[in-house]
Amino acid sequence: MNQAVAGRQTGRRRHPHSGIARAALIALAERFLMVVLVLATFLIFVVGAYAAPRITVDDVKAGSLLMRTDDPGSYVEAVRTATDVQLNVSGPTIRATLTQMFHNPSKSWVEGIYVFPLPDGAAVDTMKMVIGQRVVVADIKEKQQAKLVYERAKAEGKKAALVEQQRPNMFMNSIANIGPGDTVVIQIEYQEPVRQADNTFSLRVPLVVAPRFSPSGIGAGSAQTVTFQDKSGWGAVTPAPASSQVPQAPVLDPRENAPVNPVQIRIDLDAGFALGDVKSAFHPIKITDKGPQARHIELASGSVPADRDFELTWSAQPSQTPGVGLFREKVGSDDYLIAYVTPPSLRSAQADQRPRDVTFVIDNSGSMGGTSIEQARASLAYALGRLTPSDRFNVIRFDDTFTNLFGGTLAATPENIARAQDYVSRLQANGGTMMVAPMLEALKDDHADEKGFLRQVVFITDGGIDNEQELFDAIASHRGRSRVFMVGIGSAPNSYLMTRAAELGGGAFMQIGSVEQVQERMKQLVDKLESPAMTNVDVAISAGLADVTPRILPDLYHGETLVLAAKVKQLAGNVEVRGLIDGKGWSISLPVAGAAEGAGISKLWARRKIDDTEVAQTLRQISREDADKRILALALDHHLVTRLTSLVAVDKTPVRPRGVRLSRSDVPLNLPAGWDFDKVFGIKGETVADREQRQALLDLDGRKVQTIGASRAISLPQTATDAELRLIIGGLLLAGGLGFGLLTRRRRAVA
Q1: How much is the pTM?
Q2: Contacts of residue 93, Cβ cutoff 8 Å, sequence gap at least 6
């Protein structure tokens, strides 16, 4: 024992500096630990000061719009928006100014994201960002370049705005670096034509983007192409193009939230003729008389929630509805024309009175819940009641499955019509929206060689899908001799889908926004089904070369007006429209010298030329590459937002302090009026099998329901979180704690 002690004492004497070295090491570790703790404390302060503050319901002292975060029971305040719409109607054209005010009620710096609709024919050409007394005018750029400019400005702490087209009738506004308590104003301007049909003129202001169903996977109706690389016969399959991601903004449950996004609408109407009735179908309005041809219109309540489309219609004094109109505009060295021609609707013994072979397709998906399914059932019931004993018909219903009631068209006997009426009356709205497969089913022509019937498809839907192009491709490829007529249902239908599908299908489009409109509008549609007014339409301009749009001129049905736009070499000669009415030639000549001055016609011509190019690409008449080149050139020349171009505005002065975090805040949307929240987003606990079983009970004859694909739950975006930063802080604190423990043990060992 003494030898051991002596040995240890001898060993210590051999290393006289070891105690000093150990003390220095401990002192260095203590300094390192102090740095870690100071850094962790600083980061905690930064998170507390600048990260999106989380609050609970108990923290709210006044009315606030709260968005859920990934933390249960934790919320952040959403960016709020209000919109002012000013419309100036001058004869055939509408100039609209959309002013959006974005307010950040939180204590964070945020990026506001707002998805909003515009008319499908809108030519968006101007955007301004108003900051205090400064106005920043946006530039038009290729889409990717505009995005890079915006992202760079956002990273540098500058206020910036970006307007992108997600669909021809759906846009997204991104506003970077909205400070705590700050308000940013964005002004967007667009041009569109007045609509004319059935002796009525109209405009429509869409106010809410309805949730869209996004099919997943490859199912019925997915179009794939094959490329052969050589002469071997073996080729590569190109997958069907995925639909572009439509931004899914948060949608508020109206049972739990008051309406948001208030809208004011003011219209200065100068019709150019003596006005008769001026009406709004869905909103009470206040009308001020400004003379025989002019009115000022405002919402009677001042502002309304953005939860349904606004529609205004006006007509001429009795027996004074103009049958034609011609307007001109000069821009630089180019001349543009727009013409309105309504052919006479002559019904005679020679009219095409062949019986009809018609397939009705009705959408009973979840988005049709509430009043929409009532409108759809009533519309189909009316159309079934107008069938004659010489007609044939069938009914197909669909959600993310579909049922073919009769398996094919049957004679329109009282018994068959009664069966169909009973079936339709029991349809309920549920499930996803898989539209391509039932359209293909309806286009199947089992009597292709039979010329004694007019073959028609009447498709009743709200159009709530994001894969429109797949539907367009299906119609273009499989239409045959069928004519496709679209009936838009509900308070916020996808009018772009309806209009383009009817154009490709050689039919017409009718919109029904309330149960009260069903009989009037379905009567108008049935009139169109029974007698097209003019076929083989052709246009000639005697002054020489002219670029006329639309390139494919449609047949005109009862009460419809042909709208032409043209870029001409000179404003001279005549515009002649020719066609067949009841098999006999008909023409009308409009002298260009009589054209009145118009505004924005060049924008409308360019917008319609872009649509022509998209249609030509769908019909495989030009390649995607050539289509993109044409669209890009037109968009840049005429300063238009398209799928290839965007408007971007950047303020030069940085406003967000360096190092302060920026959170994203999606502006929430209202559920469209009349929709059922549970039908769209699903009932808790219900499976696809439960829903299919319930629908099967409604199907007649036990006919098998054809499954198209499983529905996909809609994922709502979350506000940006600081999870990564908190993980770093946690790691630093954990390292500090471990270091402190090791130092404590070392000191005890030294002692």
Answers
A1: 0.78
A2: 191, 192, 193, 194, 327, 338, 598, 599, 600, 601, 604
